[in-house]
Amino acid sequence: MHREPNDLYPPIEPYGSGMLDVGDGNHVYWEVCGNPDGKPALVVHGGPGSGCTPRSRQYFDPDRYRVVLFDQRGCGRSTPHASDPAADMAHNTTAHLIADMERLREHLGIDTWLLYG
């Protein structure tokens, strides 16, 4: 089947999700959809403050990819949210983001993955 570059795959629902304790009082929301045995791909959303969306699940062929989405610290369904005046933003840096992605990769038992975003 021919696909145009901007075509999305059909909407799908996650088959797994959770909250991962990443330290410093932060918990990141994650979800997995597509083929559990497919090539792992991590979708990193834009910001600031947004999170993963149902549309983000449609970027990869669900028959070929194990699509992992997560809400970065302070965003979406992760806690605490950046809009919370009590949130300590000193623990929300690029280094923390990379460490959180690595912790999620290990939590899901993934050796390597494609990074998209």
CATH class: Alpha Beta
- Give the biggest sheet: 5 strands, mixed
Biggest β-sheet: strands ordered side by side in the sheet = 1-2-4-3-5
Measure the end-to-end span: 25 Å
- Which fold does the CATH topology refer to? Rossmann fold
Q: What structural class do you assign from the helix and strand content?
A: alpha/beta
Portion in helices: 10-25%
The CATH architecture classification is 3-Layer(aba) Sandwich
The whole-angstrom Rg is: 14 Å
Which regions are unreliable across 5 or more consecutive residues at pLDDT < 50? none
User: What is the helix/strand order?
Assistant: EEEEHE
Q: Please indicate the count of domains.
A: 1
Report the strand count: 5
Question: Can you walk me through this structure?
Answer:
The protein is an alpha/beta fold and 117 residues long. The two termini are 25 Å apart. The protein is built from one helix and five strands. A five-stranded mixed β-sheet has the order 1-2-4-3-5, with helices on one face. The chain has a single domain (16-116), classed as Alpha/Beta hydrolase fold, catalytic domain (Rossmann fold). It has one helix at 94-107, and strands at residues 16-23, 26-34, 39-44, 65-70, 114-116. The longest helix is centred in the C-terminal third of the chain and has 14 residues, at 94-107. Strand 1 and strand 2 form a beta hairpin. It is an enzyme of class 3 (hydrolase). This is prolyl aminopeptidase. InterPro entries: AB_hydrolase_1, AB_hydrolase_fold, Peptidase_S33, Pro_iminopeptidase.
